Structure formats: structure tokens, C-alpha cells
Amino acid sequence: MEYNIRVYKPELKQEEGKINNLRGFATITFDEDFCVKSLAIKESSKGNLYLDMPRYRDYETGEYVPFYRFTDKEFQKEVLDTVREAYENMTETKIDCKGSWGEEELYYNLSVNPVQGSNTFKADVAIRLQDVLAIQQLHVIQAWNGKTFVGMPQKNSAKG
Q: Would you state the pLDDT for residue 42?
């Protein structure tokens, strides 16, 4: 499986009196077929860079759960090392890094759980890519015109 990691440093505004540990973002594209976006590059209080996955609030528990999670520690370390090195050596606002993992072509496992009692949401879906990354909070949705589609995970931009 081939993958590309794009690391970018947006122009970040520092609010007076607030500490902002966000340093940039990373995107991972697997075999030019599947893209995982919005991995935040943050700096710990000890000065170490780490990746923070986008999160959603679970409607049942109220806890914040990541949309994506690494399921293979070695792959997670490889990605994090690549991101750290790229970030520390950046001379432009973005940089692309190529890599490969395993000899196989990209494969995935799909888990579909039907949802009862909803006219719109028909099923919850989870995908496991190459046994290295899990994607949660995908939904099979039936539109007003009767067509169905898969909704990818998204953060709610509404504040409240």
C-alpha cells in the first residue's frame, strides 16, 4: 500500500491571553484512493509534536470520540515520525511525503450496523483500512428523493 502524507502550516492567529498548541495539519492519502483529513499537529507542554484526530461527540455517552484511530502502533509511529520530520524541515507552507506499508494493495474491512426507527439514517458504518487505520461515524443516509449515499464523518461547525 502506497500512501502520501501532506503536512501544512496554515497561518495561525494567536488570541491574546490564550495558549494555542496547534502547529499545523496533516492529510494521509492511501493509494490515491482514500483520503483522511484534518489530523491536527499539536505541540505538547514538553515541546513534542503529536497528532490529534478530529473528534465527534457521542450522542449516547456525551464523550468525544475520534473519527479515525490508528490500529497498528508501528504504522502510527511511522506516520508520526514522518510528520515530525517534515514539519521540522519545512521551508514552504506545505510538503508532501511518500511512503509505503506492506506489499499488498489497499484493502479494507467494512462493518455495517442497521439503524432502526429512522427515516433518514439507515445504518452506521465503520471501515478498517489495511488493518492500520479505523474510520468511524460513517452513515448510510436516505435522501428526500429516495436515493441512498454514504455520509463521511464531519465535525459540526455550529457553535453552541
A: 92
Residues 6+ apart with CB under 8 A from 10: 24, 25, 93
Q: Which residue has 502506497 as its cell numbers? A: 2
Which run of H or of E encompasses 97? strand 94-100
As given in the structure block, the three cell numbers for residue 119 are: 427515516
Q: Which grid coordinates are listed for 112?
A: 455495517
Residues of the chain with pLDDT under 50: 157-160
pLDDT of residue 2: 87
Q: Cell triple for residue 84? A: 515530525
N-to-C CA span, the chain: 41
| Residue 10 vs residues 1, 48, 55, 93: alpha-carbon distances, Å | 29, 19, 20, 7
**What's the pLDDT at 17?**
64
pLDDT value of residue 154: 60
The runs of H, that is alpha helices, within the chain are 73-88
